[in-house]
Amino acid sequence: MSIRQSIAALLIGLLGSVLIWVVAPYNNFILANAFISDDFIPVAAVGLILLLVLGINPLLHFVVPRLRLTFPQLALIFGILLVASITPSQGGLRHFLYPVGATPLYVSQDQGLSRAYKTLDPPAALFPERLGYGNSVPASESFVDELPAGESIPWGKWVAPTIAWAGFFVPYWLMLTAMAVIVLPYWRDTERQPFPLLEAQRALIEDTQSGALPPAMTRPLFWLGFGTVFFLHLLRGLSQYYPTGVPAIPLDFKMWQFFTEPPFRNLPQYVKTFQIHFLFLGIAYFMPNRVGLSIWFFQIVYAVFIMYGVSYTPMFHAGVVTDHRLGAWVAIPLCIVWFGRAHWWGVLKSVFTPAVDDEQLRRKVAGTALLAGAMGVWCWLLWVGVPWWWAMGLIVAMFLFALGMTRIVAETGVPLMAPSSQYVGTLVNLLPLTWRTAAGVYFSGIVGIVVGHLNRVCAMTMVCHAIGLDRHAKPRTHLRLAGLFFGLILLGCVVGGFVQLTYTYHYSETLNHEMSAMGRWGDGYFRWMAEGPLRQFLDGQSGTQPYNQVGHIAFGAALAVFLLVMCQRSARWPIHPVPLLFVGNWYAHRIWFSVLLGWALKMTILQLGGARGYKVGRDLFLGIMIGEVASVMLWAVVAALVAAAGGEYQVVAILPF
To answer: Using CB atoms within 10 A of its CB, is residue 540 exposed (0-12), middle (13-18) or buried (19+)?
Structure first.
C-alpha cells in the first residue's frame, strides 16, 4: 500500500470514527435506540464498511478503477472503525462520565454518602466539584437535571477530572493494546486459534481485484441468507409501526406451559423462553464443533443443576453458578499464560535485550508498553490511596480478565459477552476485614466495572481483531497499527467526552420520555459496585455468603483446568472449557438457543455435504449474520429520521442489549 493510499484510508477511517463518536451516543442514549457500538461486530462500523464495499467501491470500480479501495486500505479503515467503537458507549464513557458528573450532587443530598466519601477522602480532582453534604454544586445539578436556558456548559469544571481519570485509563489502554500485539501472532500462528469472528469480518473486505465486490458477496447463498433475515426483521419493524396492518413472523418462543409440574417448574426462565438471534446462529457455524456444542451443553447442564438444587436442596443458593464462573475466569487465563509461558518469557527477555529482527522488535516494544502501562496503573492506584500490594492484585485482575475475554472471542467468535462486574468484589470479600481499606474496597469496585462491563467491548480484543484483519501484515506494521489504534482510543475519549457532555447538559431524558438520558444505567452500577461495598465496609459488614463460596470457586477452577487439559490431550474430547466463562450469565441466557440451532445446522451440513458442503454454507451463514446487523442499522436510521421529523418513533429490538 502506497503512502497516498495509506493517507486516503486513514482519512476515511477518521471520518467514520467521528461519525461513530457523534452518532452512537445520540442513538444509544438520546433516542434510547438499539445500541450500535456495543459489541465486537459493532453495527455502526459494519454499516460504514458495507457502505464502502457495496456502494462506493463498486462505483469506483466502474468509473475510476485506480481510486478503488484495495484490501489493505479496507482492512485499515475497518480496523480504525472497530477501535473507534470502543469508547463512545459500553467500552468506556457509558460507565464513567455520568457517575463522575453526578457524584457531587448525590453527596450533597445524602448525609450518609457524604460521610463515606469523607472517610475515603479521594483526590478532589476526580470529580468536577468539591464533595460534601449540603455543598452548592451547580455544575453537577445542571449535568443531571439539564442546563438552564441561557447558561453555557461549565467546561472548566471538567479539566481536572479529565486529567485525573486519564492517569488510570491511558496506561490501562496501553496495557491492553500491548497485550493484543503480544498474543495475536502467537495464538494465530502457534496455537492455531480459529478466530471465527475475525474470519467473518475479513470476509466483508476480501480482495476485490477481480471484481467490484468481495467474493462472498458475489454468491447467491450470501444474498439468500442476507435477504431472508433482512425481510424477517423488516416485517418485525413494520409491525411495530403499523401493528394492525403488517404481521410479524415470531422469532421468540415461550414454553412455560410445558414446565408447570415439579421439579421442572423450577427450571431457569431462559430454558422456558428464548429468541432466535441470527447473528449468533451465524457465528455458531464458524465456531469449532466442540465449542458450539459446549456453549449450549453447559446452559442445559446448569439449568438442570439449578432445577434440582431449588427443588430438593433447602439451602441451595443460585449464586454458586456465579462462583463456578469466577473460578473459571481465574483458572483459564492463568492456564493460557502457563501454556504459553515460553512466549511470555520471550517477550519479557526481549524487553531487556537488543532487538536483532522485526519479530524481536515487536516483542520488545509490546513488552515494554505492557510493563509501562501496568506501572502507570499501579502509580495511579497508589495516588488514590490503594495499598501497594492491593494495587498489584488489581492489575493482575485487569490482565487476566482482558486475556480471558479476548480468548473467548478468539475461540468462539461470540461478539457479545463480558465478565461480571461482581467478580473483583467477590474476591475482595474473601479477604479478612483487617486487610481491607476504604480506598481498596472503593477502587476495587471501580476496577470491577472496568474488567466487567467495559470488557463487553474489550480494547484488547478489538485491537487484536483490528491488527489481524490483514493476515499478511509484518511485525513492524503491527507496531505501527497498534500505535495508531492506541492514539485513536485516546482521541475517541476526548472527542466522545466532549460530545457526550454536550448531550448530557442539554438532554435530561430520552426523546421518547421513557428514561433519563445518557448514563443512569452505568451510574447505577457505579453506586452498586463502588459506593455500596464502601458503605458496607464502613459499617463493618464482611460481604461473605452463607455457603462455602471458596469451595464453589475452587470447583469452577478445577473443572476448567480439567477440561482444558483434556482438550490439550485429545482433539476428539467433546467439551471445551471456554464456555464456562459465561455459563448462566445474562448474555449466555439470550444466545444459547441460537448457538444450538447454528451448531445443529452446521453438523447436518457436514454430515450430508462434508468439507465441500461446509465451505459452500459459509456464504449463507455470513449473509445471515450481516443481514441481522444491517437490519439493526436500518431501524436505527428509521428511528432517527422519524424523531427528526417530530414523529413517534419505535425502538425495534433485534440484538440482545
So the answer is: exposed
